[in-house]
Amino acid sequence: MFVCFFFVFLGSSSGSKLKVPELSINGTQHVVQAGQSLNLTCRGEMVHSWSLPETLSKDSKRLKVIKYACGRNGKQSCSSLTLSRTQASDTGNYSCKYPTSPAKKKKESTVYVFINDTSSPFVEMHSDIPKIIHMTVGREMIIPCRATAPNIAVSLKKIPGETLIPDGKTIIWDSMKGFRIPKATYKFIGLLSCETTIGGHKYSTKYLTHRETNTIFDVQLSTPRLVKLLKGDSLAINCTVTAAWNTRVQMTWTYPGEARRRGSVTQRIDQKNTEANIFYSILVVDKVRDIDKGQYTCHVKSGPSIKAVNTTVIVYDKVFINLKRRRKTALEAVAGRKSYRLSMKVKAFPSPEVIWLKDGLLAAEKCARYMVKDYSLIIKDVAEEDAGNYTIMLSIRQWNLSKNLTVTLTVNVKPQIYENAVSSFPDPNLYLLGSKQVLTCTVYGIPQPKIKWMWYPCRQNHSKTRHGFCSYTEGSFILKAGSNIGNRIQSITERTAVIEGKNKTASTLVIAEAKSSGIYSCVASNKVGKSERNVSFIVTDVPSGFHISLEKVPIEGENLILSCSANKFLYKDIAWILPRTVNNQTKAKRSLKKEYSITLTLTIKNVSLAHSGTYACRARNIYTGKEVLQKKDVTIRAQEAPALLRHLTDQTVNTSNSAILECQVHGIPEPQISWFKNHEEIQQESGENSAYSPTFCSLFIYPFALDSHLNSSTFRSEAHNELVLQAQQKCSRRFGL
């Protein structure tokens, strides 16, 4: 079959030189109905080629290109392009061009061909799955919804319903490109739709704009900042970049062997993370040598954002362990410290296995407070039992290399006073005037503390001070045996003994005679610190420091005398609280201040039975600030006339025997008793010749008196008191001899 093509090229002469190829169709646009054939011819001064739309393959069976010689004498080159059964997707630029080189400008002729298809108004249809359009804020963006005919009316909408109207500036419609947006803004981020209606049928194609960013969240290397290798080992460094979803990065390496291409780089991206993109760049250097040691840097770039991380590689010739003490001085810790680190100077390669021993046993297993970190042993909450010998053992088993070092740790303990722990002495201690006293201070500490006794003189003070009850102006005094400052110190002795498994020192202060009030302070100190025990030494002449005394139980008509005494260093504001029945006019108070106490005496004259009741004395404790009471129940005794309790009876006594006569009487006040013999009062006689000895209500008759009275006699007694002065009660007894 022979096909003959005849084309007329307009606008140029066949004899003129063609600087650019010439197409058989004038203008920039050409319309072909879908299903028809597209015929194009290109003529030029040299061999040329065709450039087709991306959607049309040069291998398509519908496409045919024929090249032939043309022009006068056949010195020009022509080619014809025939595309049969055209379809909407064939729409695009068709170009004829000369071969180009870097030094020459591109020479071509182009025509945009529309394949008009009323059933497919858009070249590309994305109805179900939108096409992704990358955008950068401030730069041009094209929504490529190209039409298959130049006169199709297309609208742009942002889903869900906003219509974006082309204004020739911010939005420009171009049927050969689509919607062109010179400077894209955040307004265009989202799902967009190009829509048109043909023959009452609505067509749309969708696009999803994707805003590119340059946000790099993090860059990390898989290796530490210092990498140690042995010659012949392999080095692998992974550089991991975490970036925002819309960010793409460029990752490069700089390293010592880069010029010799010692390393190989592998890169990949992980988009499984729902919050960010993860980029990886892995640098591998096989069989490292001396030339590979140095700094390795991973550079990351995304637009204007730049970050870099690095590590240093050291290459050793052989394995080694160097182990030394970090300090030449003795290792000391203090009990109670939050933590203490036992650390040695270690240089080794590769990293050895580390084991710490305490007194020959695994430290970590011996105590939960021990923690091994790197080459150090950390002791938490240092205690006295942490003292001992510690050994660090380093070993590299695969090379049969090991070293160890032992150090001794001393744990110092701040002085502790045992008496402070067992008694806090909430109240001051009272010591009876003139008594001998012994104060003890039991001390423990490492190193062994030095102990001294101090004395702080005390004067009366009605406000609590640093030492409790004493304000002192004379300062403090260091005590020694024989000191007479305050109280005479009989002796100060120290004794060391093992108590509860610890060497404790007991210091004993013996006070010969308590006379002065003050503060005795036991001070224990060592290089860690000091502790003190203060003993408030309050000398008192009042039992228990606060006391009520009754001179005698009164009888009505007598005087009631009550005394309230309180230690003046411990109490103040002393006052009496009387029963309601006491008449103010009958009482008298007298205050007496002594060296150690204050006494408030209450005198009520000519008491009656109505004065019976509870008498209270109130004082305020200087230390606690609380009021305290001492109570005394007083019962006034009523006067009673003498009364005979038992009558005398007659009795017979032998002349050689003695006799006792008793007359039991009762009366208030106590009755006075007189004895009578045959109506004559018997007087108390002194000397050996006395025949009678009357005592109270008893009469003793000696034997010789009985001999001188052969006849029977009558004895009687009389008793009287203030109530009945002349009343008599006869205690009569007849004696028969």
From TrEMBL:
<feature type="domain" description="Ig-like">
    <location>
        <begin position="21"/>
        <end position="112"/>
    </location>
</feature>
<dbReference type="GO" id="GO:0005021">
    <property type="term" value="F:vascular endothelial growth factor receptor activity"/>
</dbReference>
<dbReference type="GO" id="GO:0005524">
    <property type="term" value="F:ATP binding"/>
</dbReference>
<dbReference type="Pfam" id="PF22854">
    <property type="entry name" value="VEGFR1-3_N_Ig-like"/>
</dbReference>
<comment type="subunit">
    <text>Forms a complex composed of PDGFRL, TNK2 and GRB2.</text>
</comment>
<protein>
    <recommendedName>
        <fullName>Platelet-derived growth factor receptor-like protein</fullName>
    </recommendedName>
</protein>
<dbReference type="InterPro" id="IPR007110">
    <property type="entry name" value="Ig-like_dom"/>
</dbReference>
<dbReference type="InterPro" id="IPR055238">
    <property type="entry name" value="VEGFR1-3_N_Ig-like"/>
</dbReference>
<dbReference type="InterPro" id="IPR055229">
    <property type="entry name" value="VEGFR1-3_5th"/>
</dbReference>
<dbReference type="InterPro" id="IPR003598">
    <property type="entry name" value="Ig_sub2"/>
</dbReference>
<dbReference type="GO" id="GO:0048010">
    <property type="term" value="P:vascular endothelial growth factor receptor signaling pathway"/>
</dbReference>
<feature type="domain" description="Ig-like">
    <location>
        <begin position="543"/>
        <end position="635"/>
    </location>
</feature>
<dbReference type="InterPro" id="IPR036179">
    <property type="entry name" value="Ig-like_dom_sf"/>
</dbReference>
<dbReference type="Pfam" id="PF13927">
    <property type="entry name" value="Ig_3"/>
</dbReference>
<dbReference type="InterPro" id="IPR013098">
    <property type="entry name" value="Ig_I-set"/>
</dbReference>
<dbReference type="Pfam" id="PF00047">
    <property type="entry name" value="ig"/>
</dbReference>
<dbReference type="InterPro" id="IPR042495">
    <property type="entry name" value="PDGFRL"/>
</dbReference>
<dbReference type="InterPro" id="IPR009135">
    <property type="entry name" value="VEGFR1_rcpt"/>
</dbReference>
<feature type="domain" description="Ig-like">
    <location>
        <begin position="415"/>
        <end position="536"/>
    </location>
</feature>
<dbReference type="InterPro" id="IPR003599">
    <property type="entry name" value="Ig_sub"/>
</dbReference>
<keyword id="KW-0393">Immunoglobulin domain</keyword>
<dbReference type="Pfam" id="PF21339">
    <property type="entry name" value="VEGFR-1-like_Ig-like"/>
</dbReference>
<dbReference type="InterPro" id="IPR013151">
    <property type="entry name" value="Immunoglobulin_dom"/>
</dbReference>
<dbReference type="GO" id="GO:0051094">
    <property type="term" value="P:positive regulation of developmental process"/>
</dbReference>
<dbReference type="GO" id="GO:0005886">
    <property type="term" value="C:plasma membrane"/>
</dbReference>
<keyword id="KW-0732">Signal</keyword>
<dbReference type="Pfam" id="PF22971">
    <property type="entry name" value="Ig_VEGFR-1-like_5th"/>
</dbReference>
<feature type="domain" description="Ig-like">
    <location>
        <begin position="642"/>
        <end position="737"/>
    </location>
</feature>
<feature type="signal peptide">
    <location>
        <begin position="1"/>
        <end position="15"/>
    </location>
</feature>
<dbReference type="InterPro" id="IPR013783">
    <property type="entry name" value="Ig-like_fold"/>
</dbReference>
<dbReference type="Pfam" id="PF07679">
    <property type="entry name" value="I-set"/>
</dbReference>
<feature type="domain" description="Ig-like">
    <location>
        <begin position="231"/>
        <end position="314"/>
    </location>
</feature>
